[in-house]
Every structure is written in C-alpha cells, then in structure tokens.
Design goal:
- By secondary structure, the protein is of the alpha+beta class.
- Strands 1, 2, 3, 4, 5 and 6 form a six-stranded antiparallel sheet that branches.
- A hairpin with a 5-residue loop joins strand 2 and strand 3.
- Helix 1 packs antiparallel against helix 6 and helix 3 crosses helix 5.
- The longest helix is centred in the N-terminal third of the chain and has 22 residues.
- The chain is elongated.
- About 4% of the residues have low confidence.
C-alpha cells in the first residue's frame, strides 16, 4: 500500500480548491528593485520540478507524475507549476486525457518537503501561514508525511541542489515554497540566505559509522566443556572441520532451567552434538570488525530437545 494511503482516508474532497487545482510555487525573495539571475532561477526550478516528482512518488508510487509549467517570474520572484498524476501503463490516448490533479493536502506536503530543510521546520502550520484550510488531524498527518519524504535520498538531493543554485546569486535573500492560491501569493515564511548552506547540506552533520554491532547465526557444534550450573557461565564448543574451539556464555535460561530439573534429552557422553543460536558482539577496530571480549553468547539451544 502506498505510504499516503496508509492514513489518508478522510476528507479527500473537502479541501480540493479550484477546478484545476492551485499550482505549486518556488519563490525567491529579493530586495526591492533587484532581479534574480535567470540562469540561477531556471537551474533551481529544474531541481525543484525533479524534487516534486520524487516526493510525489515517495508518497504514492502507484501513479506517474507530470510537472507542468504554469508561469514564471524569473526576474523577480516566482515559478509556478502544476503537478498531475496518471496511472502508468495506460494506452497513449488514455494518458492524453488521463492526467488528474492531486489533493491539496498532498500538494502542500510535497511543496514544503522539496523546498524546506528539515532543520528549518517548526511545524507545517507555521509554513502554511496558519493552516486555516486544514483540520488539526490533517496538519498532524501532513507533519508525518513531510518527515517521511523530506529524508528520502532523492528528494534530499534535489532540495540541496536548489540551495546550491540559490547561493550563486547574492541578490536572493530567501527561498520559499507552497501552494499559490491567488495571483499575488507569496509564502508566509522563507528560508533566509544565511541558512542556504544548511539547506544545501554543507553544514549537515555526517552520521558517524557504528563502532559496535551485534550479529547472530545458527551453528551446529560439538560440546567440549559445559558448566553444569543454572547460571550464565562460559561453555566451550568446536565446529566440525574448523580447528580450535571457542567460548560462549550460556544465556538460554530455558535450557539452563531444563538442565536443573534433568529435562534435557541427552546422555552424558563425549562429542555431544548441539545446535545453538549464537549472538556475537563486535566492535570496529583498525578497519575490521572484531569480537569483543566475552562477546559470544548462546541465546538459544535448539537441540538437544527439552522435555
């Protein structure tokens, strides 16, 4: 099921807007009397359009999407586009007539996710200028959907490219986006120029690679040395065909309790075969994963069986 349809099953037609649907806008804030560089605006708009399609697919990949240019004011502030959807694999004549508008809530969510960096988002309500058209439940769900798509790698890459382009023109003092419901529309809030580097990912903290991990595997082993005590003690095992032995702490409480009441189906003998599920704690040292001291644990004894 598409992400969007997991929760958006209410009020679909309540806030649809005009017959054609209000266009999405990419907005450049400039000082009075100054103009935006056309090449910068066009390059940013291309990334914006690609980001819109990627964001729409992240919410609902059962459709194909088209972003159509409605109007542009590259010398001043706005680029307007309409995003439509159509079922894939339709015949050519069906596609020609089959493009349809998408709900306003959907449009607002993708419009903001493509332009607004996650670190600059107080709430959807803030960026929509009060969100009067949406119920509290819709705003909450838009927040959830926004955060789902804002970190999608493709969407993130196009958003960063928008700010990379915007930084090229010092006359651009802010960037915003949303759904333009009137000709004079402008976003209630924009991302200021001093946050462009953050929006482009330049100041984004890199995630540290994990220094520890836990892996598990199921092994057929031969018991070498048990510790016949109902407590987590070190047992010794070996694997057929592999030289040497290894130690692991017996932590299967069910198996230890069965030993305590003589309920394990096995006789005392040499070379007792066992099947165990082993959990291994490792740490990354000198470019390689190494087993931590006392890092092996038997978390489940699969055989011998227990009465």
């Amino acid at each position: 099921m598409p992400y969007w349809d997991r929760w958006y099953h209410f009020e679909r037609d309540e806030v649809q807007g005009s017959a054609e649907g209000e266009p999405l806008s990419l907005y450049f804030d400039v000082r009075p009397t100054e103009l935006v560089d056309l090449e910068v605006a066009a390059s940013a708009a291309i990334e914006w359009a690609r980001g819109i399609k990627a964001a729409a697919r992240a919410l609902d990949d059962t459709y194909d999407y088209r972003v159509s240019l409605v109007a542009a004011e590259p010398g001043s502030s706005k680029w307007l586009a309409r995003v439509e959807r159509s079922k894939p694999n339709q015949a050519a004549e069906q596609i020609k007539e089959g493009w349809e508008r998408i709900p306003l809530v959907f449009r607002w969510t993708i419009a903001l996710a493509v332009v607004i960096p996650t670190t600059a988002v107080p709430t959807i309500d803030y960026w929509t200028g009060g969100g009067a058209e949406f119920s509290p439940k819709q705003l909450q769900q838009m927040e959830e959907a926004y955060r789902h798509i804002a970190e999608e790698p493709t969407v993130k890459a196009h958003r960063q490219a928008i700010y990379n382009e915007a930084q090229r023109d010092p006359k651009i003092i802010g960037v915003g986006g949303g759904v333009a419901d009137k000709p004079e529309w402008k976003p209630p809030h924009t991302v200021p120029a001093n946050q462009f580097a953050e929006g482009s990912g330049l100041f984004e903290p890199e995630e540290e690679a994990p220094s520890e991990r836990v892996v598990s595997s199921t092994l057929d082993v031969v018991l070498v040395t048990p510790q016949l005590k109902n407590a987590p003690r070190t047992w010794t095992f070996r694997q057929e065909g592999i030289p040497g032995t290894f130690n692991a702490t017996m932590k299967d409480k069910r198996f230890l309790a069965a030993l305590d009441r003589s309920a394990v189906r096995e006789t005392f003998r040499l070379n007792i075969p066992m099947r165990i599920r082993l959990e291994i704690k490792q740490q990354f040292v000198d470019g390689d994963w190494k087993v931590k001291r006392q890092g092996r644990s038997v978390v489940e004894v699969i055989s011998p069986q227990i009465d």
